[in-house]
Structures are given as C-alpha cells and as structure tokens.
Amino acid sequence: MRGTIWSAVATTALLIGCGDQQHTGTIAWYRTPCATVTATLCTVMTDETGTSTAFYNPIEGYTPTWGVEAEVRYTIEDASGGPDAVGAYVIDQVVATRAVPAGAPAVWRLSSSWAWFAADGDQLKLLGVPVACTAEVCADVLARDGAGAEFVVDVEATGDPARPVRAIAAHAP
Description:
Elements: H1 2-17, E1 22-35, E2 39-47, E3 52-55, E4 68-77, E5 88-99, E6 105-110, E7 117-120, E8 123-126, E9 129-132, H2 135-145, E10 151-157, E11 165-171
Parallel strand pairs: 9-11
Antiparallel strand pairs: 1-2, 1-4, 2-3, 4-5, 6-10, 7-8, 8-9, 10-11
C-alpha cells in the first residue's frame, strides 16, 4: 500500500512538473489585425478542438508565411505556473505545409482603436502588408478605418507573394 501511495505521489509530481502536453493545430495562411499595447498582426492557430486563437507574441519555432498553412505539433510552456498564465507556444514539429488556393477566405475584425490601413497607390497596406482591392473596396475600407467604429473586412488569398491578400468587402460587424 505504501509503495502505491508513493508511486501515485511521484506520478502526480511529474505531471505537475511537466505541464507541457503535445498538441496539434493548423497555423493559418494569413495573420489577423490585433491590438493590445500596439496595433500588430497576430498569428492565427486552430487547435485540435477547432478553436482558433490569435497570438500577439510570436510562436516559437515557426515563422508564418502569407498564403501557406502549416500543420504543427506544439507544446505550451507555462513558465509562471499561474492559473491564468497563457504560456509560450513552441512548435515541436512542422508536420506539413501547403499553399492555399487563390480565393481561400478569411475575415479581419478591426477595432476602432487604431488606424490600420494606408493607401498604397491604388491599393492598400495593412500595417505594411500589401493588400489588393478594387477602387470601391479600397475606398470603403479607408473610410471605415477612420470612422471610429469597429468594422470587418472579408479577405481572400491571392496566390501572389508580392500582394498576398485581397480585400473583397468591408462592413459593420
């Protein structure tokens, strides 16, 4: 009996001590606008449960590429051990990457806290990333960006690394 108790205690201590568990997920082909202290583009990952999360901090072990999805195995390293700690996401293995087809959809939800877009000739830039759009959609996005209200931009992959994303519509949330 005493050996069983010590075995259970040792196993529990090991489990608590190594809270890193292997997870699987897909890193999206795009980044999404997000803001905490500053406006930035966040990496989007969908985990094995289908939950998508935008990461303000980089994910260690992988650099996202516009237009390319990556299936990964990762661990979450919680340095603080606190119950509300987010932890660092560390890519253990890139299982597969694939270029998404032109027209693959995504949605950007933009807060009114920041100016996200700038004109780039007859196109746009989102925090320095070139964005293609028709003259009408570009004008609509720029008008909403300065209006002080949250808005949504429907986007799609272009297949062009020089201008990897196209805004196809802007609207209220």
